[in-house]
Amino acid sequence: MKLGDNIFGWVDYAVFAGMLLISSGIGVYFMWKGNKTTNDVLVGGKSLGVFPVAASMMATFMSATGILGVPGEIYLFGTQLILSRLILIMPFITFLTAYFIVPVFYTLGSCSSYEYLERRFESKAIRAIGCLLYCLTTTFQMGVSLYAPAIALTQVTGLPTLVTIWGTGIICTFYTTLGGMKAVVWSDAFQSIVMTSAMVWIVVKGIIDVGGIQQVWTDNVETERLELVDFDFSPYTRITFWNNVIGGSLAMLGSYGTNQAAIQRYLALPTLRGAQKTLWLSFLMYGAVSALTILVAMVIVSHYRDCDPIKTGRIRAADQIFPLFVMDVMGNFPGIPGIFIAGVFSASLSTISSGINSVSAVILEDVIKLYGKKTLSEKKSVFLIKVVSVIFGILCMSAATIVGEFGNIVQASIMVFGLLGAPMFGTFILGLFIPWSTWIGAIGGLSSGFVFNLWMGMGQLIYRPFHVMKEKDYVDGCPELYANVTGHAFNLTAHNEFIQNQLDRTGEIFPVYRISFMWFMLIGVVVVVMVGTTLSFITGAQDIKKLDARLLVPIIREAIERKQKQSEVPLPLEAIRMLGKHKVIN
Predict the structure, then answer these.
(1) pLDDT for residue 6 is more than 70
(2) pLDDT at 576 over 70
(3) Is the separation of the CB atoms in 528 and 446 below 8 Å?
(4) How far apart (Å, rounded) are the C-alpha atoms in residues 248 and 83?
(5) Among 94, 324, 387, 406, fewest CB within 10 Å belongs to which?
(6) 42, 360 in Cβ contact below 8 A?
(7) pLDDT tens, 368-390?
(8) 2: alpha, beta or left, given left = phi > 0 and alpha = psi -120 to 50?
(9) Which of 293, 263, 260 has the alpha carbon at shortest distance from 278?
């Protein structure tokens, strides 16, 4: 099969369309059932259960980026990025988020996480800036999530990528606009079941075809795909233990701890304990689906070990390798490709619907109510949320047309969050962990982090540093196919010379532009915290006696509250006597 072959049958189209109709139907159902207030639309009336919210969070953060991107990432660069996150990072981040960060936002009670910034720094400006930066970040993240399934559908149907992008975006915007948070959560729960079922079915058939799980393991060991840690200290190495654990931890803490989509889900639970349980259950679900995705990638490596589909021209990018694998292994089974594409689109729809709903929340709370009318009727507020949802859906579809320039979709997703999300997360860190920080420091730190990260990221996109891939497979099993595509036999010497030339070119790039994208998150956060703390002390640090300690993480809040009590001046003896007389008279 060559790129663009149309082998999607009518059964596949029927299965795929059925999934989209069910998702849309969920939105219509909750519209008719009742989304009368902003509380219903944005946090589901605080009446949702632990399981559907946990499944929704898993589906949102796994997304089509994970379903399609992880197999492509492992095929090109090995398992280190994914395995390290799953084993070393996720348990720690879940604990930190559940018991240090979620209590702060749950106590705050606002459906906008950016109201926290206003209350912590006593500044409407930092709240508005945070809102706008979040909208920009989310627009591009949703663009990545739309782009991922679009290339999958293009691979199996031959439809133009632009058509698949806009088709998916319109459907997702439709059911999110109608049904609000309840539609988002229940659609995500349904879609996560579809997504997982499709992957299990495909991976079992793939293992059987390659000769069993032992053969899969052997092929991945021999091609050096299985790799847990690399302790290289170089900041230019693409993935290492250090940049993965440090940068990856910050990225996941930002996603689960301060991300607007996550905060809304925590608030959709009736109790703090329920929100914490949801986080742990979501971690277990995410871990299970991630492990399944890694297994899919290993089977793909084994299947194409001797005939690289990229070199032979069957696909243009590694992100298309999973759809190709499905067609090669399951193409003769009517309906299975449709289930797979439905699963991929399920992952994408869950992420995009969450993004649309969360942006609607911050625009209403942080822009319209802050700078427009202070009091809006519930009917008008709900109407404005739906208008914002439609506009943002269109912006996401537009962003999806350009994110392909960021590299493979896993790298694109991490780059977007590192470049744009890091400064905002650094500002939350400043507020939660640095009690002396002020609004001047917050705005200065946020601005500095954003400018520095943008400069660093743009340089990398322009000069494109090269990273060596895991290439032990080549085209030994299909030399004729390679020759038909390229017009000549595969030449290992010429291939190695090309790699060396690319490495030499990369070595001449300005060092800052060669830094691994995995460090973007840490760099952005450090710049914000250092500049923000320094400016705060230079211009006059926050008086901790006047600080609302509830806006700090629990461990620091307790220390500040003790200092505040110690600083209380005891009443003079004569004042105590007068107070006692006053009570007796009354």
Answers:
(1) no
(2) no
(3) yes
(4) 12
(5) 387
(6) yes
(7) 777 766 666 767 777 777 787 78
(8) beta
(9) 263
